[in-house]
Amino acid sequence: MNLIYDRLVKRSTTFSICFALLLIAIKFVSWWITDSYSLLVSLFDSSMDFLASGLNFILIRYALKPPDDDHLFGHGKAESLAALAQSAFIIGSVIFLLFNSIKLVIHPTPVNYPIVGIIISSISTVLTFALVSYQRHVIKLTGSNAIKADMLHYSADLLMNIAVIIALSLSWIGIVYADGVLALLIGGYIFFHAIKIMFVALHDLLDKALPESDNQKIHELAMSFSDIHGVHDIKTRRSGPITFVQLHIELDDNMPLVKAHAIADKLEKMVANQFSPAEVIVHQDPISVVATEKVGLQKFK
After folding, report:
1. Are 133 and 178 within one domain?
2. Which of 77, 179, 215, 257 has the fewest CB atoms inside 10 Å of its own CB, making it the most exposed?
3. Cα distances (angstroms) measured from residue 288 to each of 119, 221, 259
4. Which residue range is the domain that position 217 belongs to?
């Protein structure tokens, strides 16, 4: 397992939990003073963030465990489970919030001491932006779906803080329905992106192949060897941080086994470096049996 990946992902989940607790405290005080529904929605969202980040914290550490006798391919899918669970959690909470936002639009209520909420929401916005920027950096380096799901919470929280500031400002000048309308818009945004994260996690759990462009890269790496006459049956999937690749290469019938093994071994290392961290298996086929093998593969499919 890539040690840099481990360190970055663990640190990110720890920061998320600490940050969520801080936001809950700040927003609770602000809501208590102002009685703003937008702030209550934001407080509820931060509470969901804390629970989801806690789940992330546990499952990601399990996903990073090395393979054992019962899990020979590792525990990486626990990361996708974390993303899936977070998405389901978010969707359920957002549906509840959307219904209440609709009621608030129909029956708006005034906000108390909006200036207090504006100041506290501004502080929350700055803090949230710092966390989201760090998570985006971690995702760029690791591609972690669980951190992507976690960042969704806080990206939505960032937008929510901005919307709360707008809603409180409008309420301050007498536009009382703005509180409910903006809460409704934020809920819709969170719902849409939670669905996207859920489908990504499901695809990983169901071993969806990598994009065709990645398969093409693998093909090009193989065909860069003058002794390889063709490539077929490229299979790819991802489990947590690890990419799994299998492919068949076509070699001369009379090539010595030692040479064929050396070519396959070198190709495995090249592909693994391209998709690190990765596990790669290269099967060597005599060119004379390729046509028969392809027919068999088509029947199997």
Report:
1. yes
2. 257
3. 75, 22, 18
4. 212-300
